[in-house]
Amino acid sequence: MHIQFDSPKLRVFLEEYYTSRHQAIVAEVDVELLETDDEWSPYLSLEDAYKLDDVREALRRGDVKAAAQHGKVYTLTPVAM
């Protein structure tokens, strides 16, 4: 997982690699970063955490359509091995 901070927004990139096809499927999901005065800050809402879990599971199943409901999905192909 790659995380890019755009405070207070957070962009998370979830990756699943398919070695049999030598390509990767990556989902770009926007979530909101919650900041408070407590020691657990910053954190995600429960809804955003579930959204990331849903996208990760969809990518693991190879269900691009389900993953695309929550963000942008890309296929990456390596140029050289």
Structure write-up:
It is built from 2 helices and 5 strands. The two termini are 22 Å apart. The chain has one domain (2-76). It is an alpha+beta fold. Strands 1, 2, 3, 4 and 5 form a 5-stranded antiparallel β-sheet that branches.
Give a quick rundown of the structure:
This protein has 81 residues and is an alpha+beta fold. The protein is 25% helix and 42% strand. β2 and β3 (23-34) form a beta hairpin.
- Tell me the major beta sheet: 5 strands, antiparallel
Number of domains: 1
Q: What is the terminal-to-terminal distance?
A: 22 Å
**Category from helices, strands and their pairing:** alpha+beta
SSE order, one letter for each helix or strand: EEEEHHE
Rg over alpha carbons? 14 Å
Helix content: 10-25%
Instruction: List unreliable stretches of 5+ residues.
Output: none
Question: Which of globular, elongated, flat, extended, rod-shaped describes the shape?
Answer: elongated
Q: Counting H and I runs of at least 4 residues, what is the number of helices?
A: 2
Average predicted confidence as pLDDT: 77
Strand count: 5
Oligomer: single chain
Strand content: 35-45%
Features:
81 residues, alpha+beta, 5-stranded antiparallel beta sheet, 5 strands, 25% helix
Write the layout of secondary structure elements.
Blueprint: E1 2-6, E2 9-18, E3 23-34, E4 43-44, H1 46-61, H2 64-67, E5 72-76
